[in-house]
Automatic annotation (TrEMBL):
Entry protein name: Spore germination protein
TM spans (from-to): 344-365, 413-433, 439-459, 466-489
Keywords: Membrane, Transmembrane, Transmembrane helix
InterPro entries recorded: Spore_Ger (IPR004995), UPF0353/GerABKA_families (IPR050768)
Keyword Phosphoprotein recorded: no
Superkingdom of origin organism: Bacteria
Family the entry assigns: Belongs to the GerABKA family.
Residue segments, region Disordered: 1-35
Length: 544
């Protein structure tokens, strides 16, 4: 087929219009050249649906009148009121048309090329079935769809698509011309690694799924999209590998997401988590978040389900356990020996952040419990403020410094650290308000909290530490034992999408527990976790 631009030569507009429709050169009505192209079944069904008088009910119908369409756009979408709602009216092929799009959300160059192509249409090149002609022959875009539902057309335009209305047609063409404002992928600040990829998720859904697809070139990788929110209509993508994922788990997650009835989720994944998981006032996270495409791809291969939410750079990994939240990508970027070492250092830091301060406080209150050879434990001076209040004030002070660091401009962050370390810490000890040991153990606990891979788990551990300190202040050793036991029982009874939260410790799974304590070599880690109940247990074929 000859390219229409090559046919134009140096002639005038009349010559160009005669040359542009390459299939209009065979005579007759100008369309015999395309008669050999049979309509596909999907196109025929779309056309029948659009033309059916009872295809839509009431307000969902698309009016064949362009004037009525424009009036409705003024009423419902704020045409001529909102500056970003744009309608371009033109006469193409003898038919009055209106192109609706949102300024800033579409590719101007693509729409310009579409309109440029359509301006060369002869009126006699368009049959009475103009919608089909535009769709099948004349709109040079990759993704084009016929739609007769008004609400879907409006939502599509608000999502970045262009909508072409044609006079006399009870449907319109949706042209995918999305061009969202976005940023380049960069390494997530909460999941940095020494070795490994430096790309991370962004706020654009299409970019995020592409980063995972690049790593998983599996034809059985599935991306299902649903819209959540009556007003926001936020795109939510459910990702899984079809021949690995547990079907019951997938159906449970899919049903919970589709059952969400809410005005919108402008805060994206966190609001969706609250609407689906419904953990109430429980501080422990039942969902794992990641901003790294390699981490998400690895969990999909294990049999997890991941949930992408448009406008969020974080991806939910479902289900999760307490021990999953304690693992970091850096451990798998080192040798098995060093990965195991780093994992144990992290465990020790997290345990110290939980129990070091309550245990030290207990030994101060109960000197008879101090083991022989550890008489150095305990402050020489108690300070002007009771120890329990010193711990509480120190916790609040660390939280204030953390929040201040988030809101402090980068050039001032160093100055703020000096103020916190010298003016607050040193002066507070010298004036007798705090004792040195409280500042020391608080610093160790803060380091352990920041070493926790999951930010949400670190915050939950901080609440547990405060509860243990208060229990020790009120009831001494029995308080520490009782509160620790109650928190452990609560963790054991928790479930993440009907999976035990403390697996593989309770219920006990020896192989999985060993894989958690010791980072195994890749070729020795052949089985997927029992927790996920995958369709395929083996990760790789066994060799004799």
């Amino acid at each position: 087929m000859t390219n229409w631009r090559q046919n134009t030569g140096e002639g005038d507009i009349g010559d160009i219009r005669e040359a542009i429709p390459p299939f209009a050169e065979t005579g007759g009505d100008g369309r015999e050249g395309m008669d050999s192209f049979e309509e596909t079944e999907s196109i025929r069904l779309e056309m029948e649906k659009a033309a059916a008088p009872g295809g839509n009910n009431g307000e969902n119908e698309v009016s064949p009148s362009i004037d009525r369409v424009l009036e409705r756009l003024k009423e419902e979408c704020g045409l001529d009121t909102s500056f970003d709602v744009v309608v371009r009216e033109m006469t193409l092929g003898g038919r009055r048309t209106a192109l609706l799009h949102m300024n800033g959300l579409v590719k101007d160059q693509l729409l310009t090329e579409v309109l440029e192509r359509l301006t060369y249409l002869h009126p006699d090149a368009v049959s009475a079935d103009a919608l089909h002609d535009f769709f099948r022959y004349y709109v040079p875009a990759i993704q084009v769809k016929i739609e007769s539902d008004w609400n879907k057309l409006v939502t599509a335009s608000l999502s970045g698509n262009a909508v072409l209305f044609i006079e006399g047609e009870p449907a319109a063409l949706m042209i995918d011309a999305k061009n969202f404002p976005t940023r380049s992928p960069e390494e997530p600040s909460l999941e940095r690694v020494v070795r490994g990829s430096r790309d991370g998720f962004t706020e654009t859904l299409m970019t995020n799924v592409s980063l995972v697809r690049r790593r998983l070139r599996d034809p059985r990788l599935r991306y299902e999209v649903v819209q959540i929110g009556k007003r926001t209509k936020t795109d939510v993508c459910i990702a899984y590998i079809d021949d690995i994922v547990d079907r019951r788990l997938l159906e449970s997650i899919r049903d919970k997401i589709k059952q969400v009835e809410i005005d919108g989720i402008p805060l994206a994944d966190k609001q969706l988590e609250e609407a689906t998981v419904k953990r109430g006032w429980n501080p422990f996270p039942l969902v794992r978040y990641s901003e790294r495409p390699d981490v998400v791809a690895a969990h999909l291969l294990e049999g997890n389900v991941t949930v992408f939410v448009d406008t969020s750079p974080s991806v939910m990994i479902l289900p999760t356990t307490f021990f999953d939240l304690m693992q970091h990508a850096e451990e798998n970027r080192q040798t098995p020996f060093m990965g195991t070492y780093l994992r144990w250092v992290r465990f020790i830091g997290v345990l110290a952040s939980l129990f070091l301060m309550p245990l030290w406080f207990l030994l101060v209150l109960e000197p008879g419990m101090v083991p022989p050879g550890m008489a150095f434990i305990g402050p020489n001076e108690t300070g002007d403020i009771p120890l329990v209040m010193q711990f509480v004030l120190a916790e609040i002070g660390v939280d204030l410094m953390r929040m201040a660091s988030v809101h402090t401009p980068s050039p001032l962050a160093t100055a703020m650290s000096l103020i916190a370390a010298i003016l607050i810490g040193d002066v507070a000890v010298k004036t007798g308000l705090f004792v040195n040991e409280v500042i020391l153990y608080m610093a160790v606990a803060a380091i352990g909290m920041f070493a926790t891979p999951s930010y949400e788990l670190g915050l939950a551990n901080r609440i547990v530490r405060l509860l243990l300190i208060i229990a020790v202040a009120l009831f001494r050793a029995p308080g520490l034992i009782v509160v620790t036991t109650l928190i452990f029982i609560m963790l054991v009874t928790m479930r993440s999408f009907n999976r035990p939260y403390m697996w593989p410790f309770i219920p006990f799974d020896l192989r999985s527990m060993a894989n958690f304590l010791i980072r195994p070599p890749v070729l020795q880690n052949r089985m997927r976790p029992n927790l996920l109940r995958p369709q395929q247990r083996d990760k790789m074929p066994r060799t004799d």
